[in-house]
């Protein structure tokens, strides 16, 4: 038997029972379990206020998941049914499924080689050559999108922008003109099991998002449905978990910051051949992904690392265009995304990771990546 303990890739950490109890007791007393109950209402106020205090706060609308949030805000844009939505090839599949489920067509674009993001500059290039009805940039691996630059993009082009910031709560700000969607999935930095939040300064759009999350029922016009929606609501139980998670957020965020800073220091020290995403060093990240030196494939290293008791994952390989469901939607060559996808490797990263575990990962990575020069 392997005497060395396995270092997991990811350890989800949600609020424990004691932290949930006050909120669950509230639900017991309210007997209100879903349909925009008091916990959901208060949760939305907490989220909105975390971006700006009222009365200048944006609207925050909860959803059953991050993906539901993306679909709802895309629906609320009310684009024509053949609309094309530009998104990056290097992202989780939900970015593309949300576009297709909303009745639109993805337009898969490339990403920047150092930030690994689809940038406003890239979007301007695509918009000059293609029909682009909306852009869905992603805050990839928690790296926030530049909202001022996207606000300027919206002002200049009139093309709406929805930032898929699923894993970037704590890092991603909200622009005046671009809408942002966060996920509360168990694996994200702020986790409630399942859940999502749409945040926007466009309060009329937020209202449409809410209506679509409730089947499209228009409560202000005789409960009629004018535009078909879905059931995308967050339950009071999930809101309870999200409240408890927000209560713990300062501690969790500080710990994630500390782990990220220490890891980055050790990687720079021991693995100078690895490259990290160009992003703020003091961010709060859900995962840690490194770029292997040219000539190395992430999939070739994974068994070697596993043999050393280190779990890893390739993010996001295959890229969107390499999935059969999305291969018809490519907007041109994707050299950067394809190169990154083969060389990006997700390393163990979680709130409780200790110094020894970080050292073991860095030492193994140093051994395995140094071979290139040998
Ligand atoms: C996690 C994630 C999603 C999906 O969020 P869910 O809450 O799981 O639906 C969408 N896009 C990106 C980039 C993600 O990382």
TrEMBL record:
Q: What are the N6-(pyridoxal phosphate)lysine sites (modified residues) in this protein?
A: 188
Gene3D superfamilies, per database record: Type I PLP-dependent aspartate aminotransferase-like (Major domain)
Q: Give the record's GO biological process terms.
A: polysaccharide biosynthetic process
Superkingdom of the organism of origin: Bacteria
Molecular function terms from GO: pyridoxal phosphate binding; transaminase activity
Listed A to Z, the keywords are: Aminotransferase, Pyridoxal phosphate, Transferase
- Mind telling me which InterPro entries this protein's record contains? DegT/StrS_aminotransferase, PyrdxlP-dep_Trfase, PyrdxlP-dep_Trfase_major
| Similarity remark | Belongs to the DegT/DnrJ/EryC1 family.
Record protein name field:
DegT/DnrJ/EryC1/StrS aminotransferase
What organism does the record attribute this protein to?
Answer: Dyella monticola
